[in-house]
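Module 6 notes. Inverse folding takes a fixed backbone as the condition and produces residue identities as the prediction. Think of it as a translation problem where the source language is geometry and the target language is the twenty amino acids. Below is one complete input and output pair. Work through it position by position during the lab.
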């Protein structure tokens, strides 16, 4: 286990570059096995989750070469072998192999995936959609087996706009016969990126980012090699933006798509944060204590649940009382207890957190319960008086590339300690 030693009180200043999107990279890597050839993928963040996906692809028979921020995947010799429970439990996004393997081979067996324990993320929407495409599903002893002599286009209506189900069904439909419509889909930018990648290898998909996605099935021989660049990570960029605000800093975040950050920037402006937006950058200048605001997490283009913990850290120091309502995950307030240890005044009632802003936070011994909670606690520690010891930083490494190095380049004082 590793931990961060963080000395707070420094105003962050300078320029920082967001990495490629973790939540776009993982489904795109899963989709690369559809193509019996090479995919060269650029702007891949060097993260633990990406390393796990690399191991999974290698286990399936792909040749994977990872050089800095570029991954080359040759999926020519991929086979639908059973994926070990150990690999599946190390990362939630491993469930995305279900649609890709079923589409290419007509059979797949995987165990239920793992990942952050932030709430229930059932597979029922994925499985219901695959059944409508013609798959037979069996769930037994913690494994999911899906089989189909052939997948046939269907009209699928999701009960909820699930990101994972939308991605899985898009990939499953690529090599199906006929046309598939998926309705009430998730609209996240990462889905548009997956569509663009799949089209670059020869798929015929349109509609990502709207309510309905249309997939015209193609054959394996229609697919071709590609070179593709991942979009910037909007959650990483958002984390740096809020970090500038909480420390009263002056930070420019580059390699961003500002439109993807609109819900976050709107709330920060409401709180009184000074923000200026360029073509591919956002500058944040702290200008005194922020004002309280209310937030309700929603599917994109609403306020992202992945930015809720970071905003809670910021609002802990706001003037007035803020209310955060979490509608996506029922167990995503685990960071509250740790923020309280630092002096925050937060009360939780069901899926609602009431935050009364305090004048200051103080350093403490705390621990990260999950990826975004960990990021929020780093931010709180940067703004706190004195030193903080943050345990279980392996959660942070799942989604942030060299986090302490990037923060230290802005004037933070963070030391990674190997126990």
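Target side of the pair, the amino acids:
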């Amino acid at each position: 286990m590793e931990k961060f030693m963080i000395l707070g009180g420094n105003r962050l200043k300078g320029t920082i570059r967001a990495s490629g999107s973790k939540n776009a990279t993982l489904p795109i890597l899963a989709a690369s096995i559809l193509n019996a050839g090479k995919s060269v993928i650029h702007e891949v963040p060097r993260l633990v989750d990406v390393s796990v996906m690399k191991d999974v692809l290698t286990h399936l028979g792909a040749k994977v070469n990872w050089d800095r921020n570029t991954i080359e995947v040759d999926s020519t010799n991929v086979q639908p072998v059973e994926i070990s429970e150990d690999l599946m439990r190390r990362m939630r996004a491993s469930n995305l192999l279900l649609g890709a393997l079923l589409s290419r081979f007509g059979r797949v067996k995987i165990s239920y995936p793992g990942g952050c324990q932030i709430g229930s993320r059932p597979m029922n929407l994925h499985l219901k959609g695959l059944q409508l495409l013609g798959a037979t599903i069996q769930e037994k002893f913690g494994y999911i087996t899906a089989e189909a002599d052939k997948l046939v286009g269907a009209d699928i209506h999701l009960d909820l706009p699930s990101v994972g189900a939308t991605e899985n069904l898009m990939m499953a439909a690529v090599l199906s016969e006929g046309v598939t419509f998926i309705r009430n889909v998730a609209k996240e930018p990462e889905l548009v990126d997956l569509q663009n990648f799949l089209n670059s290898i020869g798929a015929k998909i349109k509609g990502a980012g709207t309510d309905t996605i249309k997939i015209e099935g193609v054959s394996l021989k229609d697919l071709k090699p590609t070179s593709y660049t991942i979009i910037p990570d909007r959650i990483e960029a958002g984390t740096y933006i809020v970090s500038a605000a909480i420390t009263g800093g002056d930070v420019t975040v580059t390699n961003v798509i500002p439109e993807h950050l609109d819900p976050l920037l709107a709330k920060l402006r409401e709180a009184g944060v000074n923000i200026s937006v360029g073509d591919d950058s956002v500058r944040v200048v702290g200008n005194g204590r922020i004002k309280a605001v209310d937030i309700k997490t929603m599917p994109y283009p609403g306020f992202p649940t992945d930015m809720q913990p970071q905003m809670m850290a910021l609002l802990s120091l706001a003037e007035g009382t803020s209310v955060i309502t979490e509608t996506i995950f029922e167990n995503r307030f685990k960071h509250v207890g740790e923020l309280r240890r630092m002096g925050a005044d937060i009360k939780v009632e069901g899926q609602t957190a009431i935050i009364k802003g305090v004048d200051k936070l103080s350093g403490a011994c705390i621990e990260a319960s999950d990826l975004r909670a960990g990021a929020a606690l780093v931010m709180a520690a940067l703004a706190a008086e004195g030193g903080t010891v943050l345990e279980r930083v392996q959660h942070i490494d799942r989604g942030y590339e060299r986090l302490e190095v990037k923060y230290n380049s802005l004037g933070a004082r963070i030391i990674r300690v190997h126990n």
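Reference fact for the lab report: The chain has a mean pLDDT of 93.
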